[in-house]
Amino acid sequence: MAPRIHERTRDRVSAVQVLYTSELTGKSPSELLDCGLCLVAREAPADEAEAAEAGAFGRIEEGTLTDYALALIHGVEANQAQVDERIEAASENWALSRMPIVDRSILRLAVFEMFNCDDVPVSVSINEAVELAKGFGGEDDSPRFVNGVLGRIARSMEGDGTGAVGVAGADAAAAGPVDALVGASGAAACVQVGV
C-alpha cells in the first residue's frame, strides 16, 4: 500500500504550485486564487500501476485549497519583500533572480513558514522544503541548494533569538532529536529528524 502523504505536505505542494504559477504568469497569487486557477495534489492511488503513473506526490486535479495552503500562499505574498531579503542574505553568490523559479518558490514558502508558523518546527519546514525540491526542483542539486540556504537561515535564527531550530511540544516525543549534519564544504548537508 502506498504511504499516506501528510495533509500539510499536500498543502505545501499546492502552495508551491500557486507561487510557481504566479511567477510564470506574472499574476499575483491572490489574483490566481480569485480567478480560480488553482490545483491541488491528492494522494497517489493504492494501485501500484496507477501510483507509478501518478508520481511521488500523486495526481494533480482541480479542487479547493485548504485553509493552511491559503494561509501559506497569502503569507508569502504579504511578506515577500522580507522573505526575499532573508533568502538573498543566506544564498551566497546567488541573486534571487538567478535561482530557478521552482527553487525560489520553495524557499519563499519555507522561509515564511519558519518565521511565521509557530506550530511547525523549523526542522520540519526545512525537511519538507528539501522533499519538495527533490520532487519538483529546477536542478539536480536543488535539494542540496534549498537545504543549504535554509540551514543558514535556521542558524541565523538561533543566533538572533527569533526562533530555535528543533522540535518542540508534542512533536518532540514523536520526532525525536534533531541533528544538522555539516558537509565538507561547511554547508549543512541535511537536517534529519529522529536520528
From TrEMBL:
Gene source species: Adlercreutzia equolifaciens subsp. celatus DSM 18785
Gene3D superfamilies for the chain: NusB-like
The family this protein is said to belong to: Belongs to the NusB family.
One Gene Ontology CC term in the entry: cytosol
Alphabetized UniProt keyword annotations: RNA-binding, Transcription, Transcription antitermination, Transcription regulation
InterPro entries (UniProt xref): NusB-like_sf (IPR035926), NusB_fam (IPR011605), NusB_RsmB_TIM44 (IPR006027)
GO molecular function: RNA binding
Entries under Pfam families matching the protein: NusB
Underlying gene: nusB
UniProt KW Transcription keyword: yes
Record-given protein name: Transcription antitermination protein NusB
GO BP annotations, alphabetical order: DNA-templated transcription termination; transcription antitermination
Domain NusB/RsmB/TIM44 per the UniProt entry, residue ranges: 11-155
Superkingdom of source: Bacteria
Protein's job: Involved in transcription antitermination. Required for transcription of ribosomal RNA (rRNA) genes. Binds specifically to the boxA antiterminator sequence of the ribosomal RNA (rrn) operons.
Residues of the signal peptide: none
